[in-house]
Amino acid sequence: MPALGRHQRHPAADVGGRQDPQARAAQAVLGGQGAAGELSRRRRFAAAPITSDATNRAPKGWNTAMTRSLGKMVVGNILATAAIRFANDPALYCAGTDRRFTFGQIDERTNRLAQGLSGLGYGKGDVVAFLCSNRAEMVETYFALARTGIVGLPLNYRLAEREMIELIRAMGASGLIYEARFAGVADAARPLVRHRIRIGGEASSAEPDYEALLAGASSEAPDIEIDEADPFYFNLTSGTTGLPKSYVLNQYNNSTLGPMFQAFDMTRDDVAMTVFPAFGRVGFAWIAGAILYGIPHVLANFEPNETLALIAAERVTIVNLVPTMAAMLLPALAAAPRDVTSLRAVVFAGSSLPASIREATMAKLCPRLYEYYGMQETGALVVSTPADRVRRPDSVGRPIAFGEVKIAGDDGRALPANQLGEILGRSPNAVTGYFDNPEQSARTFRDGWIHTGDLGSLDDEGYLFIRGRKKDMIVTGGQNVHAAEVEEIILGCPGVADCAVFGLPDDMWGERVVSLVVPQDRADLTAEALEAHCRQHLAGFKTPKQFIVETTPLPRTPTGKVQKFLLVERFSQASVN
């Protein structure tokens, strides 16, 4: 398996007037009824127009057209420009299928997919879901949707089938692109979508095949006007119900990746690697940023031994991990040593980095670590570089270019340096609200800032320190789990009288999900039965890793709220003892 060298060229693949984008929030509009057998309720998305104050006029002689750029910050241009600049250079190695692509080949395949989807009747504002592991088709789908104005709905394959189907229904997706191994979900989605496009597996006349769709379509770029404020894709984050909160990222949000990659000191001499799931914002941003700079990329699904083997074989220089991944890589490396000396940097994101994992990673995997802070709604706000790590080892760093951070009191006013308050943030790639959830939007997006729910402080030199979270959210293995959702499922288990779900520190997962359950009188509850019930109704990462059954009532305030801080203190101390 040849390595992804900087100047290596690959053999041919298998087939040949701007407005302020942040002021134009994506707005959902319901379409009409479809034909029999098609989705009865079809959503299209459009950008809301900017309103202007007639009394606010430009100076005499000022031509407002002169203030508008002729070019646009849209996602499709990231790949189009790279295909011109680096056409025959190595772009992507898809480890799962052992296929290699140049920038020009990805660009051509993306155009074919865009044309194929247009030929099936999908257009600007339609919603198409896609369900796929980390492989080239995932990258092509993102960029094809960006070029057509179709709104993407990337599905988290870790969710339960019920959750995925409900998302397809709720977001009004009228198409589904899916990897063959998820055929069960595709079958369940049949009544909801017009087309199901299969990636891999046995050929079938009943539905379009991905490669056949590409082979029969034009390789010309679609002639569709795309604006910066046009919705690009839904991103999903945990919510208080069975469905995650969702928001729409627009074209501009996903085109402003430069500052983040500059903060990591990345150049075309790098070979980047993505093992983050590409259905999430971090995974796609890492891929798109590498394409933006013409950096060759290894795309793989995370498995410790395979990841180490790929780093060695492809001479990977920089990889993005969550702490849980590093905790799995280190013992695998000790058990079967590999040559990972090509690594010049490891970038951490997703959850707080325990000191034990940080030190072990620096000693055994790579001495240069970057860490960045942000939430899915804000994108990356703050980066800690290796130099920052020396100066402020307990800090997550300082804001990146165009990233803004403020520490605020309960009244929203900025606090002085070194005072604890809520972390507020904003940046060009931040979103402006949740989809179809005005109440939560009003709580989180206020006065031009995103309220993260995290507690922290800034020192005199602008270094950010994270001190905890206001939200009742558990971050386990880089995934957000809302305790209320898990509690609702557990309370539905026969024999449960009461329960509380909380997070405890864990070297492997950052935090592990723990449930304390109070049984009904004479109920014979076991941890095994509770786990089986949760796995039936929840994604695996949401299922508690520890079930504790006690007959003692939960500690509550006079108003009936569970005092979870007492549970965390008690069971954290029990773990230490």
Automatic annotation (TrEMBL):
The keyword Ligase applies. Residues 82-435 form the AMP-dependent synthetase/ligase domain. Residues 1-10 have a biased composition (Basic residues). Residues 1-37 are annotated as: Disordered. The keyword Ligase applies. It comes from the Bacteria. One of its GO terms (molecular function) is medium-chain fatty acid-CoA ligase activity. Keywords: Ligase. Residues 485-561 form the AMP-binding enzyme C-terminal domain. One of its GO terms (biological process) is fatty acid metabolic process. Belongs to the ATP-dependent AMP-binding enzyme family. This is Long-chain fatty acid--CoA ligase. It comes from Phreatobacter stygius.
